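Thread amino acids onto this structure.
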C-alpha cells in the first residue's frame, strides 16, 4: 500500500512538473508573438534576447539571426548574442558566418570553453577538419580534460585523457591518441626540479605521421624543462599514419606536459 502511495506521489509530481513547463512554454510563445507584432525598439533588450533564444530552440533560425543582429547592433560586447547568432547560423548552414561570430565571442571572453566546442562543430561542417580538431582539444584543455602526461616527484605517471573518446569526421582517434601519448611519454625525460612546472607544445603531423611543425605555446619558465618537452616530441617522430577515413592532410595537436613536485610534510 505504501509503495502504491509513493508511486502515486511520483506520478503527481511528474504531471505537475509537465504542467508547469507547458505553462512556461506557452507564456514564452505569447512573449514571442507579442514582440513579433511590435517594434523591437520599444522593448528591453533582455526580452528580445529571450525571444531570440526561443526562436533558436523551436527552429525559427532566420528570425533568431535577425533578433541577435538587432541586439549586437545595440551592444557589441554581449558574448551570448554572438553565441546564439552563430548557433542559429550553423542551423542554416552558414558556417563561415557562424565561425566569425564565435571568433567575436572568444575575443570578448577567451576563457569561454563551450565556444571552442561549438566552433569546432562549425569548422568540421565547413570542411576544416584540422581546425575543428584543434578547437576541440582547446575546449577539453580549458575544461581540464587534457591531452597530457605528468611526472610526479621523479616517478613517471601517465594520465589517460577523456579526449580519447573524441571522434572527428566520424573517425575514431582514441587508439591513435593513446599510442601517441605513450610514445611521447617514453621519450620525455624532464629535469629534476624543486617546484611543479607545465609546458604546452603545439605540433603538426601529416597523413604519413611525419612531424611537420612544432611550436612552444607556453613556457614553464625553465629552459631545460621546455627543451625536454620539445625534445620528447622530436624523438617520437615519426608517428603512426593518421587513421583511415580521416580526410585532412594533416592535424594539429596541442600537448600539455606537467611536472608535479610533491613536497614532504613534516
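Threaded sequence (266 positions):
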Amino acid at each position: 500500500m505504501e509503495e502504491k502511495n509513493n508511486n502515486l506521489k511520483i506520478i503527481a509530481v511528474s504531471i505537475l512538473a509537465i504542467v508547469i513547463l507547458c505553462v512556461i512554454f506557452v507564456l514564452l510563445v505569447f512573449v514571442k508573438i507579442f514582440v513579433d507584432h511590435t517594434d523591437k525598439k520599444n522593448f528591453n533588450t533582455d526580452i528580445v534576447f529571450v525571444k531570440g533564444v526561443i526562436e533558436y530552440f523551436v527552429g525559427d533560425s532566420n528570425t533568431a539571426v535577425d533578433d541577435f543582429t538587432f541586439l549586437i547592433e545595440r551592444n557589441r560586447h554581449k558574448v551570448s548574442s554572438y553565441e546564439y547568432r552563430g548557433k542559429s547560423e550553423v542551423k542554416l548552414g552558414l558556417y563561415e558566418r557562424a565561425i566569425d561570430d564565435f571568433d567575436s565571442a572568444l575575443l570578448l571572453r577567451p576563457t569561454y570553453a563551450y565556444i571552442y566546442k561549438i566552433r569546432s562543430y562549425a569548422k568540421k561542417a565547413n570542411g576544416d577538419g584540422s581546425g575543428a580538431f584543434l578547437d576541440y582539444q582547446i575546449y577539453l584543455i580549458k575544461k581540464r580534460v587534457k591531452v597530457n602526461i605528468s611526472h610526479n616527484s621523479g616517478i613517471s605517471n601517465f594520465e589517460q585523457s577523456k579526449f580519447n573518446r573524441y571522434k572527428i569526421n566520424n573517425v575514431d582517434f582514441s587508439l591513435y591518441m593513446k599510442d601517441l601519448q605513450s610514445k611521447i611519454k617514453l621519450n620525455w625525460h624532464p629535469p629534476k626540479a624543486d617546484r611543479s612546472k607545465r609546458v604546452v607544445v603545439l605540433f603538426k603531423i601529416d597523413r604519413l605521421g611525419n612531424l611537420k611543425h612544432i611550436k612552444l605555446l607556453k613556457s614553464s619558465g625553465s629552459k631545460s624543462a621546455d627543451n625536454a618537452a620539445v625534445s620528447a616530441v622530436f624523438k617520437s617522430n615519426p608517428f603512426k599514419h593518421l587513421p583511415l577515413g580521416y580526410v585532412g592532410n594533416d592535424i594539429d595537436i596541442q600537448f600539455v606536459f606537467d611536472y608535479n613536485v610533491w613536497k614532504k610534510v613534516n
